[in-house]
Structure formats: structure tokens, C-alpha cells
Amino acid sequence: MLGLNVDEGGRRPQREHAGSLAMMSTRGKVAASIAALCALAYGLAWAMYLWDHRTIDVTLAVGSTIPPTEPEAVQATRDALSLARLDAEGFEPVPYDRDGHLFARRTDQPREGHVLWRAARSERLWDYLVRCEWQASQVTCGVTRAE
Fold it and tell me: Is the peptide bond preceding residue 67 cis, with omega within 30 degrees of 0?
């Protein structure tokens, strides 16, 4: 045929530019950039949320009795909050029952339990959960922030 660019059916072939940034209009480039920034911001927000709600593990050297008494457990969890780089001075332990008990001991494992902590001006029931397990000369604690 006289140099015309047609296929066998007499139609002009489609240009192949799917996904090509060079062929995208300026408006399309701006929209793609905004969508990419939104996706990045969303991912960053999730990463910050997950980082803030991770469990921080700390180990304390203690000379306490096993199983621990409630005052020993409260002091160990306060120390765990401090080792997790939280200012525990403004915190107060939260009772877990109506009798005012602070250390919730596992019934099947008396060496394990937790204490709930609330910041001084917090409106939440509790802000941090400190789970602990006592061994012979140390306590392993996990400090978790409330969601």
C-alpha cells in the first residue's frame, strides 16, 4: 500500500504506551504524584501506629520472693516503665478488681502476672500494661501501650 501504516483489516495499529510516563499528560502526572504521596503518607501513619504500640521488653535484677508480693510486683512494673523510657512518676497503678488488687496474678503460673498503669491526667481506664515473669534473680517484663 502506498506507505500508509495500516494493518490487515485496514485499521491503524494502536500505539503501545500503557503505563509510559512520557506519554502521560501533565494532569495525569500530577494525579499520579498525589496518589503516590497519599499512599506513602498512609503507610507512614501505619508504621508510626505499629511502632508506638509495640511491646518493649525489659529485664530487671531483683532479690524478691517468688511468687512476688503485690508491693514487689508494683515496684517491679514501675521500674520496667522507667527502663522502657517512660516517666513513671506521674503514673498510678489501676486496680483490676473491685477489691482494689493491683497485681493480676495468673492462677496457673503464680510467677507471672500484670499491672495496669494510668498517666496522671489520662481519661482512659489504663494507658500501659506491664506483664512480668519472675525467675530466680530477675524479672522479665513486657511494656505495652493501650490502643
Answer: yes
- pLDDT (tens digit per residue) in 61-93: 877 677 888 998 899 889 888 888 777 778 899
Instruction: Report the C-alpha dihedral over residues 77, 82, 85, 86, rounded to 10 degrees.
Output: 80
Q: How far is CA 11 from the centre of its chain?
A: 58
CA–CA separation, 61 and 81 (whole Å): 14
- Domain ranges in the chain? 15-52, 54-145
Select the more confidently predicted residue: 132 or 44. Answer: 132
Residues constituting the chain: 147
Query: For residues 115 and 104, is the Cβ–Cβ distance under 8 A?
Result: yes
E strands, the chain, in order: 56-61, 91-94, 104-105, 112-119, 128-134, 138-145
